[in-house]
């Protein structure tokens, strides 16, 4: 997969209030995490022990939705509003933490949970790094 | 439009940690705000003075995405995680405030901005009320 | 819930190639169906017999996503492209049919599936009526 | 960006009715196209000649939404329904074609439209290839 995130950021015709490289890395982490969570929810649904994975499925769905929305907001620079980015990054880091914890608790039993937990951890860190760079 | 939000909440088979009536009202406000913002962004795009409305369009798009995601998260009760709901409601109230302010500044010139600003105000209030009831 | 769909459509500053009343009714049906499917997926997750509802949960998630996207596309009128609306409405009617059938098969056991099936049927019909009016 | 799409597909615990490599390539093309369209809509909003780009912005928004939803549907395999995948892929290929044509017409003036057009073309082709492999 060749990401179009950095090439597209490079063509934005006005200034951007954040470091473009860090921003692109965060957007890519969000997109990868959203996809991993969508796939993990579905893989959990097909496990024989699905009844023990319902919290994992639900948290995956939340995390997928929140990461996708955060990636979109961070991909927009026109009329930038730091308050929206900041509070949303905070909520997204929280969702990634919760989902990473939940998936990690099933990582030994299910490889999809192990990969998804890693993706959530990486995304949480990227969100927190970007947040730190904003203040 | 007959909302299915309250009837569906009533059929949830387990307990819900929030007042169902307040929850349904918030979800409905989020859905209405998301739709108003999507429509307002498009109406702004078709105004002759679109160049003066670019911040409004962008904020509308953010608010539409964040409200839609918040409505989904609040519509899930399995494996409830108060931390996700709380931080997301905080981000959503912020997006509604920013979008409400921006739309309000065009309310005299554009009826779609006036209606959208009202929808954002109502949604911001619903988010804050629900947040207050959670602590 | 007071829908903002028709009031917002009334403020669109250019002409719209479709009957505004029918369009608003379809958008409202899509929004209601998307919400019902999101809630039904979560209610199914909390049923003791979740292992027998995995196809229902998955179809609910597809239908929720497709209805939400179709509502957004139909809420935009700038640079209207009938080909996009037509093929998407066709896909959406199909998703509503599949989800309506699946939910209907659980309607006697689960009230959330019964309500959701009704919402899917109404949405499928609205999509087909709008499609018919476009040709 | 390290895509998690193929690793996650490899962990799905049941059989999948489609070639996993082709499926992963399509999902990745959809995700990349959705991101390119979101960024292109915003870059267009910040161009001085935004009034001439309103159809491009609108088509970008449609294509971003439809590609994101199609990526999600293709990432689910539980309770697979070929009718949903088929009609949605058809709608998605159409949206990519429309958006690719629109962006291509601005490619000489705007580098973001050139990159986005390429992403739309690649995604349209991936959707059509997957569709062809399904029949």
TrEMBL record, chains A, B, C, D:
<protein>
    <recommendedName>
        <fullName>Four-helix bundle copper-binding protein</fullName>
    </recommendedName>
</protein>
<dbReference type="InterPro" id="IPR044543">
    <property type="entry name" value="YHJQ-like"/>
</dbReference>
<dbReference type="Pfam" id="PF03860">
    <property type="entry name" value="Csp"/>
</dbReference>
<dbReference type="InterPro" id="IPR005560">
    <property type="entry name" value="Csp_YhjQ"/>
</dbReference>
């Amino acid at each position: 997969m060749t990401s179009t995130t950095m090439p597209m950021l490079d063509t934005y015709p006005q200034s951007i209030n954040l470091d473009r490289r860090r921003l692109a890395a965060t957007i890519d982490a969000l997109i990868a995490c959203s996809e991993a969570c969508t796939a993990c929810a579905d893989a959990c649904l097909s496990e024989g022990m699905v009844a023990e994975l319902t919290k994992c499925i639900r948290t995956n769905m939340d995390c997928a939705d929140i990461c996708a929305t955060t990636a979109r907001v961070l991909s927009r620079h026109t009329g930038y509003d730091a308050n929206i980015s900041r509070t949303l990054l905070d909520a997204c880091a929280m969702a990634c933490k919760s989902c990473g914890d939940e998936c990690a608790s099933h990582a030994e039993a299910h490889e999809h949970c192990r990969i998804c937990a890693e993706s959530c951890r990486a995304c949480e860190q990227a969100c927190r790094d970007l947040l730190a760079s904003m203040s």
